[in-house]
Amino acid sequence: MSKQPNSKKKKGFSRKQKSRLEVALIYLVIAVMFVIIAYPLLWALSMSMNSTTNLFSASLSPENWSLVNYEWLFNNPRSDYLLWYRNTLFVSTIVTILTTLLVLFTAYAFSRYRFKGRTYGLYAFLLLQMFPVLMAMVALFILLNTIGLLDNLWGLIIIYVGGNIPMNAFLVKGYLDTLPRSLDESAKMDGAGHFRIFFQILLPLAKPIISVVALFNFMAPFMDFILPRIVLRSPENFTLALGLYNFVNAQFSNNFSRFAAGAVLVAIPIATVYLFLQKYLISGLASGATKG
Amino acid sequence: MPKEKQKRKPVPVNADLNHSPKKAMLLSIIPGLGQLYNKRKLKGIILFILFAAFGIMMFDFIFSGFQGLITLGTIEREHDSRVFIIEGILALIFAVFYGVFYYLNIQDAKTEARKIRDGWQPGSVRENFRNAWDTSFPYVLIGPGFFLLIFVVILPLLFMGFLAFTNYNLYNSPPRNLLQWVGFQNFIQLVTLSEWRTTFVSVLSWTLTWTFVATTLSIGLAMFLAILTNDRRIKGKRIIRTFLILPWAVPGFVTIIIFRALFNDNFGAINSDILQPLFGITIPWLTNVMWTRIAIIAIQLWLGFPYVYALFSGVLQGISSDWYEAADMDGATRWQKFRNITFPHLMFATGPLLLTQYTFNFNNFNIIYLFNEGGPALRGQNAGGTDILISWVYNLTFTNSQYGMAAAISLILGIVVATFAFFQFRRSRSFKGDGEF
After folding, report:
1. Distance (Å) of CA A169 to CA A63, A86, A165, A288, B155
2. Scanning every residue of chain B, which has its alpha carbon at the shortest distance from the alpha carbon of A4?
3. Which of A76, B74, B149, B389 has its CA 20 to 30 A from that of B161?
């Protein structure tokens, strides 16, 4: 809905009024959207400051605000919050390192080498990317149970890394494809080996996509709920999402304020990162998928 | 392949017309012999040793694996049918790999013999070694990732596929009992036993409705907002855009749980702070099927539109204003401009991504489970009113221990996803275009 050209000014006045009305309407729609978006978030924030443990009786007025819920999370001996935070950080770090490395190698091979079975490999990756790991949950549960990795953070890590490879490999491959091949070909002429071309020439150029992949993989365990739910059993092994869910899932769900406090501490850093890097993240996601 | 043609053109000097590729292939039935015939002694010996060693080592494993896969164990309480299936699948994977390598070995002998016939001579050992490293390098790179993929993705998917044809359920579960192959019984029960059938039909139809309505609405809302906020007269676009993307930035599980509290029938703010004081009504959001469905779709709208909105905004900013100026010249109405310029641009740039949104919602377990755990319960069926296929599978697995049936439904789910994937293949530009990707 682009602006009408200003050149025709015959009926300038009424046109101007009409235009003003339109702009006002657009702002109204945006304002309504703002309220709809902000309301649940602000409500949760105020719940997290709610001093009574009473369910859902938050006061939106800042007079009764307190930080008791946050204190409880950190200081109460019955709180596992810090432990969950540590578990999640542990899983995130290892998943990020392993996935980034494996994905880089795979994408480099697919992007720069023409070898037998390459096309089949790409088709296989594309197909596997469509199937969420979740779909095999029956099998994963039984498999992990049989090999004794149920209720173990390493079981979770393996599933994350393996499941992340196809999609991320495509993302990185798409990016590497855009880097001119003449770069590595001239290096090859100069006698550089495979690894040297990879580490000294392509890797520095691929930094943006590497950071996107690393970031995605680092944040995923903070937000994923279902896989931890399937794999982890005992509270001391929980990741944040699972632990927080258990606050509200208890039979008498009067811990919503604690959930809110814990969730705020997870959501604020993640949302900040997402908003700051939205351009990278969205274009990264988009290019990975359209490049196919 | 123009290089090969060029090589063959000049009259070969060293051509050995008696060297037969067919002979090399036949000899390769025993791996390595064909390479020996090609005068690649070291290569031939290494290949022979590798194939023989792996063949001997794995024969037992593959044989007993297949045997276990067929019988699923014979001694109750001692044999664990699940382990038998897993070992059987591993044996299957190994056998496939062995076969592929065997085939490659024959092919290698053939191409090399052909090259020798046309006058090519193998170089020094060092040169050969270097060539071997060059050709195998990409496989070395892919190796580790592929290995993990086999164990984490392919093995479980196959395992699930096999389970769908067993009678693994609460009353017949290893290690206490042995499993039996039951053929298509699970699938047949799903469509013939009335209890299963009604559930399956209602869950499937809700899954499809949910996927279509929730995704289409969020795409529509995203398009509407993207066009509005792209208007030139609007100021503060960056702040507006950032704010509209906010729901995407907040972790989904947090928002869904917040909404669950907001929609609570008795104490939720939507009933007690908005509907009750303003309109004097309360709506049973979590106990009435229709209202739960409406609530879930509304929440998904809130969660799902920002990402699409961000995509659309990016595309809109890139459309040249020439298009619209030309349209203005011709006196086009707004609707015409939207239909003929904006909409095609958006769809062309984001088509495959939008399709991904549909597949995502089709398997959107999080919102269904976190909002109301698939509830409210429905009479006469064993799934909740808002259960989609994947959350139903979850319940069958973890609450009802109906593993066989859960696997069968997962398999159906997989077929649906594969169909979607097929269309995505055909639609995505890279496959239509130059083919090289």
Report:
1. 51, 28, 6, 9, 20
2. B328
3. B74
